[in-house]
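Need a sequence for this fold. Nothing fancy.
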């Protein structure tokens, strides 16, 4: 038992290094075995809502239980309710990578368990974060203004959603500082209709008026990127109406289709109009460490802030969202607090960065350890190869889809996301039902997991390659499963239609 050395009158000891060693090794074995057998589980958990309520007691135990009993419960009760994001057959949403280096970094982060909100609370936590984000900025070839040597720098947020929120707050307070706080109702924000839902949420939190949220419509002709002319026109109209355009949230690699906004053109427009320009590259940013994909970031030099999630496609276990800003004082002016109990000489003398002033919460984990270990233990060349391999596999999947005339590719495959759909027969409406049935049927097999989106009112299937364990055979096998289910579904579809038809005919005959 965990506290087996507890005598009658000895106090409870929740930490003991020898016990940590013993149980820590067991847990590592458990996790290694999980990865070894991960392909055996259905990728999408097949449980029903509240399945766990019936399996667990309704109150915490009074007395300690055995570690092995807990492990057994994880195997028997928890794992069935897990959707296996690390399965090589996980192709849903965007990936959420894990890796050995990321895992080891997570262990040491948990092991030290420091709360590095101010420099003084753990100088290494702040300083490593500054250095590692400079490293990553250089791998992405970001402009020097995003480096810590100037007025800006990088910071690790939990998620891209938090990144959007903090830069929106900084931008809002910067402009309100100039024009007066009672002008909040005049501030207008812009994005395309492909922007992540996190932007809308951030606007709600920041108090941006709903009627001042401009959603620029995109279509296939511009590859689902923002049309600079429409953007310019919208700004013009808003200024005519006495409103104040102040923020653009653009995307490199949108969540629906991985489309890319034309950063150079829209960046110039934000510059002319003195607006804050945020570039959200949560998923596709990782690809830009490869020189051949870096051009998707051309124009980032106009941006005030840039974000990519190392926890999506760069082998860093969740969470690790990297945000860079050119002017960190905008963040600090908006988000800093300075209660007496946190005061210290280093902060007072402004000699140090206190990351509490660059984020929403106070407490923060030592997440840079993970990213540092990923960059050091793999090296940039391996990371680039890793990205390239996924893009190659996505291209292979695209070829497979193209070779079956029952399907079509809907958007160009820019990174590792393939958007496709099962073509409805002529007399069908838009294939909505057909494709959603196919998706459900495939995911119910448990053999792979993928997801969908709606683009231009069409139901689109998304196949996102990017799990660390995915190999060519997984992609080929998955495609076979999709094809087989498509065959079954179209048969059912035709059958149900013939049934309907004969029913109708029967009704007519009865009349
Ligand atoms: C995944 C994603 C997000 C949200 O990421 P979180 O880190 O979960 O908040 C935002 N924007 C884009 C483009 C994404 O792909």
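Here you go.
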């Amino acid at each position: 038992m965990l506290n087996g050395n507890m005598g009658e009158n000895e106090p409870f000891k929740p930490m003991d290094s020898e016990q940590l060693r013993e149980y820590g090794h067991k847990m590592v074995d458990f996790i290694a075995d999980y990865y070894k057998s991960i392909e055996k589980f259905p990728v999408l958990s097949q449980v029903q809502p509240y399945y766990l309520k019936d399996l667990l007691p309704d109150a915490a135990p009074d007395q300690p239980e055995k570690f092995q009993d807990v492990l057994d419960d994880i195997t028997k009760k928890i794992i069935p309710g897990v959707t296996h994001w690390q399965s090589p057959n996980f192709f849903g949403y965007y990936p959420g990578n894990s890796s050995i280096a990321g895992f080891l970094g997570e262990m040491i982060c948990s092991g030290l368990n420091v709360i590095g909100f101010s420099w003084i609370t753990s100088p290494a936590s702040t300083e490593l974060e500054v250095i590692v984000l400079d490293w990553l900025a250089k791998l992405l070839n970001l402009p020097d203004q995003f480096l810590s040597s100037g007025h800006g720098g990088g910071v690790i947020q939990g998620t891209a959603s938090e990144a959007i929120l903090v830069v929106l707050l900084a931008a809002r307070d910067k402009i309100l500082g100039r024009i007066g706080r009672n002008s909040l109702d005049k501030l207008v924000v812009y994005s395309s209709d492909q922007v992540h839902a996190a932007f809308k949420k951030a606007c709600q939190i920041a108090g941006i008026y709903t009627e001042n949220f401009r959603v620029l419509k995109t279509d296939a002709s511009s590859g689902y990127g923002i049309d600079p002319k429409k953007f310019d026109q919208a700004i013009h109209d808003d200024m005519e109406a006495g409103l104040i355009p102040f923020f653009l949230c653009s995307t490199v690699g949108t969540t629906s289709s991985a489309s890319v906004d034309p950063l150079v053109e829209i960046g110039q427009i934000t510059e002319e109009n003195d607006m804050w320009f945020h570039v959200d590259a949560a998923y596709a940013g990782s690809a830009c460490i490869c020189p051949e994909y870096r051009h998707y970031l051309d124009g980032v030099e106009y941006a005030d802030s840039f974000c990519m999630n190392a926890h999506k496609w760069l082998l860093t276990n969740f969470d690790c969202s990297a945000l860079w800003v050119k002017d960190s004082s905008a963040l600090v002016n908006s988000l800093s607090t300075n209660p007496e109990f946190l005061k210290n000489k280093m902060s007072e003398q402004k000699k140090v960065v206190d990351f509490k002033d660059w984020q929403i919460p106070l407490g923060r984990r030592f997440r840079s350890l993970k990213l540092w270990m990923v960059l050091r233990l793999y090296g940039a060349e391996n990371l680039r190869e890793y990205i390239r391999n996924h893009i190659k596999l996505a291209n292979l999947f695209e070829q497979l889809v193209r070779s079956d005339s029952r399907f079509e590719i809907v958007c160009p495959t820019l990174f590792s996301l393939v958007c496709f759909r099962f073509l409805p027969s002529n007399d069908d409406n838009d294939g909505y039902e057909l494709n959603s049935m196919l998706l459900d049927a495939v995911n119910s097999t448990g053999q792979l997991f993928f997801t969908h989106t709606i683009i231009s009112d069409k139901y689109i299937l998304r196949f996102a390659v990017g799990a660390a364990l995915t190999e060519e055979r997984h992609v080929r096998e998955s495609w076979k499963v999709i094809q087989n289910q498509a065959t079954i579904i179209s048969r059912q579809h035709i059958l149900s239609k013939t049934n309907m038809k004969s029913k109708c005919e029967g009704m007519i005959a009865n009349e």
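For context: The first strand starts at residue 153 and ends at 157.
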